[in-house]
Design brief:
This protein has about 500 residues and is an alpha+beta fold. Helices cover about 40% and strands about 20% of the residues.
């Protein structure tokens, strides 16, 4: 049981490569996070395409809740855009399609023929990405599964439904579907109608902090938890939870980098930026905690290195980082946002080909390729943060780098060097912390978003990296990558 003045919350945090259940003990001056169970997230290649093993993930969640022990509430966050379809009786209609599946190839052009890209951006504020839920649903039109579906649940809402029997659509994740108006926080019904998307498939919207049901008796029996155990809606898009855990001080002018399989780089704003310039720069306006807007760009992230390691059949990144640190800086760079890096398979070969196409030197060893990935990510971080400041007319004094990349000291230092401002790294488990703190606020912890961030800054280990090196070298490297690929017309 929790000590006097504290409560214990379980955070189910599902990432693109692994899932975890964390417990957080929270009080006015207490914030302790413990990992109780971690399990792999291994997508499956089927004849019909790439699919999530959602049943394996749900089993991992149940095992994690059993390991967590008594909790006052639990919340669920995951990656965005993907969903499960339910039949009229509530049963799942097949494994959810993976956002890296190829079914959306060519669909964007089909959509833009009906709703031009500029109109689409003004209507939703969401950047172009081929895997946005909107494009997935257009790709699915005419399929037996969609025809039979009576409900669509985004991944965290699907897990919550299996735990509680109640259905809802959490707003921060819903905003990534490209079907929400970022100004109103509600569905854009005229847009959906033009594209033949039935919004009645979606369960009612709910906001972070709202009740999301209680654990079913069968779930309590499987997990050993004594009831009732409430489930609380959190920022169910993991980036929304991670940004809520940025340890910014009050009135600090900050940018954030949520790093992991993806890098999400941007600013926290009070209102969306939907100008033509913002659309051309491919910035998105996703909804955050307490009515905030996450104005950001998606960058390919450490997926590049993860996929290289899979090809090399390596599991320990430490020797690779040590080799990379000895390599010449900025010798090999690529456009980390290039679409040819999106799909799985032979990432080292694709990186080498991209270097060859620009006429630059070609990395060949794992150490050289790793350094190429990290330098290229730092350049992508630099470009995104600089463009966000320009588009939103807001300067920043510090970059807060949270998520798994906070453990990568070389990436953190390179990002500080590239951006020319200090980088504060940590917490690494930002999504789980944000998840826990939204629950804590819903269950009696007083304070606003700034107060919860100050609690993180007081209680979590953070590392500050000051910029160093030659800024002109970064300028020259940036010129080699920034004009290499045009954005959508």
């Amino acid at each position: 049981m929790s000590a006097a003045g504290t409560k214990t919350f379980a955070a189910v945090d599902l990432g693109a490569s692994s899932g975890r259940v964390m417990t957080g003990r929270v009080g006015p001056d207490t914030l302790r996070l413990t990992e109780t169970h971690r399990f792999p997230n291994r997508p499956v290649h089927l004849p019909e395409g790439l699919r999530w093993d959602i049943l394996g993930l749900y089993g991992g969640v149940l095992d994690g809740l059993r390991a967590a022990g008594p909790v006052d509430s639990l919340g669920i966050d995951s990656w965005a855009v993907d969903y499960g379809l339910l039949a009229a009786d509530g049963s799942l209609l097949g494994n959810p399609v993976h956002y890296r599946d190829r079914r959306t190839e060519g669909v964007a052009e089909q959509v833009w023929a009906t709703v031009p890209l500029d109109d689409l951006y003004r209507a939703t504020g969401i950047q172009y990405a081929p895997f946005n839920t909107l494009y997935q649903l257009v790709a699915a039109q005419g399929t037996p599964q969609l025809a039979a579906a009576r409900r669509l649940l985004l991944i965290p809402d699907l897990i919550a439904y299996w735990l509680t029997g109640e259905q809802g659509t959490e707003l921060t994740n819903a905003s990534t579907t490209q079907l929400i108006d970022a100004r109103t926080g509600d569905w854009n019904r005229p847009l959906a109608g033009r594209l033949g998307i039935d919004l009645a498939l979606f369960a009612p919207l709910r906001r972070p902090g709202a009740p999301a049901g209680t654990l079913l008796p069968a779930v309590r029996e499987r997990t050993g938890l004594l009831g009732p155990v409430p489930v609380t809606a959190v920022g169910s898009h993991d980036t929304a939870s991670a940004v809520a855990a940025v340890p910014a001080r009050r009135r600090e002018r900050f940018a954030y980098l949520c790093t992991g399989t993806w890098s999400l780089a941007g600013l926290e704003l009070d209102a969306p930026v939907t100008t033509g310039a913002s659309r051309a720069a491919n910035f998105t306006n996703e909804l955050g905690i307490d009515g905030t807007v996450r104005f950001l760009r998606n960058i390919m992230g450490l997926w590049l290195l993860q996929e290289c390691m899979r090809t090399w059949e390596l599991t320990d990144v430490t020797p690779l980082l040590a080799d990379a640190a000895r390599m010449p800086a900025l010798r090999y760079v690529v456009d980390a946002a290039a679409p040819e890096f999106l799909a799985p398979g032979d990432m080292p070969g694709r990186i080498a080909a991209a270097c060859r196409a620009t006429g630059g030197p070609v990395p060949r060893t794992p150490g050289e390729i790793t350094r190429c990935v990290l330098d290229s990510l730092a350049l992508a971080h630099r470009r995104a943060i600089r463009e966000a400041q320009h588009l939103a007319d807001r300067e920043v004094d510090v970059v807060h780098l949270v998520g798994g990349g906070a453990r990568n000291a070389l990436l953190c230092q390179l990002t500080a060097d590239a951006c020319g401002v200090p980088v504060v790294a940590g917490p690494a488990e930002a999504a789980a912390l944000g998840n826990v703190l939204v629950q804590a606020r819903a269950h009696g912890l007083p304070g606003d978003l700034a107060s919860t961030r100050e609690l993180i800054a007081r209680t979590q280990p953070l590392t500050r990296y000051e910029p160093s090196g030659d800024p002109t070298a970064w300028e020259a490297a940036a010129r080699r990558t920034e004009d290499a690929r045009p954005l959508p017309a």
